[in-house]
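Case study.
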Amino acid sequence: MNLDLIVKKCIKGHLCYPTHALCPNCRSIMSEETVNLSQLEGTVITWTTSTVPPPGVRSPNILAIVEYEVGGESVKLIGGIENESVKIGDKVRPVYSSQLRDPDHCQRVMECQKWSGHRFEILDKDN
Amino acid sequence: MDRIAIIGASMTQFGVREGSWICDLLSEAAMGCIDAANVDPQDIDQVYVSNMASGEFEGRTGIMNALVHDIGAIPAYTTRIDQTSASGGAGIYAAWQSIASGHSEMTLLVGGEKMTHTSTSHATDIISTLTHPVEYKHGVTLPSFAGLISQLYLHEYNASRESLAKVAVKNHKNGIDNPHAHFRKAIDIETVLSSPVIADPLRLYDFCPITDGSAALMMCPESTAKEITDDYVVITGIGGATDTHVVHERRDPTTLDAVINSSKKAYHMANKNPDDVDVAELHDMFTILEILQSEDLGFFNKGEGWKAVEEGLTDRDGTIPINTSGGLKSKGHPLGASGVAQVHELYHQLLNTAGKRQVNADVALACNIGGFGNCVITTILESI
Ligand SMILES: [Zn+2]
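After joint prediction, the assembly is written out as follows.
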């Protein structure tokens, strides 16, 4: 299961993650067309290791911004890294996590948002 | 149009204010400002209270109504302004608008936050709630955004890690001479680089502290100011702008578009260029932010702000002194108070009453950042 990585396209073809009422690139509405990034390879643009995370978050929490190029369009996502270290330029693929942070131990009300989703795993060089 | 004047400014001691709650802090700054401006509370038409999260931090709402009652300003109109970390700057904009619209002849702005009674991780989580759900669920915090963007900036521009540390060293040095600052202690680059990692590559001393405090400004039309005092400054430019709420959606994460767009409006209104600015208070919640702003405000070329810090151009005796108050870094960052306290410093710089921190300045600029650049207010002030 990896529903979280279904990315919507606007009617002009821009990839939008997350979705908005209007496409941030061209202000047009979303189309029904989607792209599934679950099996695709992205590139780490930047990363950090958060060593003093808030309640309900794993520690240390390695985070990265990952960029995908799909059919000439690019889209960026943020997510945790499953490996112990990462660097700019690493190739990654998404893996599913049923609970990214513990909604019982945070400020935001449990019912108000999804808590499952993706993290990223670094692809082996020889893969 | 009559220009809009600031005729008084005050701030409380910033720091750990045990036993003082949000309404105590607001009241202390407000009374200090009423006194400094020599205004009868009954002459105040409107009161704006800049505060991000009194409900979340203290379980207290409606704090602006409590304030007008406490300071004898009833029946003055009041409301609270929340623009996250830029609540202070947003309050300046609202107070300015109240007078520019002709609805108020005398407006008091008070910004404040009470934070230190909570743990650091709890306070960080309260602030993190400003992020989008696709960010929040990954445990993203404002410090982690700072780590992500610093990593990218160092990589893209081949910048030195020491330049970030130098921002902290400079601002701590400036803060020594600010009696209201949370920290009045010199540090060196080694202090920063040997402190614990918080969000790689940033360490403890790259971050501002969690602080209690309040600051206030009294504003009125310049024609009124002239009747009251010779010692006032004028707001000649102001602008606000937003950027993507979701940080990873930015075209270039190392550029703060809301800083560019808000300052463009402020420069245009004041008919000034970046070169005209003599002193600036920037939002150094994280060391990287001061460098990004110094570029996006046009003081330095993109990718060269870090060199300017290394060359000392932003030191108190440099070509463009930045954060003579000590900045958020040493003064502290009581969220709603910070934007107001920035202008408190510039008010004193322009009136030549900044004591040991005094620089030679006729044109001053304040840049207050909400979220990680989600909304920014730039204010330009001038001496008369
Ligand atoms: Zn589009």
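Observations recorded in class. The interface with chain B takes residues 17-18, 24, 45-58, 61, 63-65, 76-80, 88, 100-101, 106-108, 112-115, 117 of chain A (CB under 8 Å). The radius of gyration of chain A is 15 Å. We will return to this complex in the next lecture.
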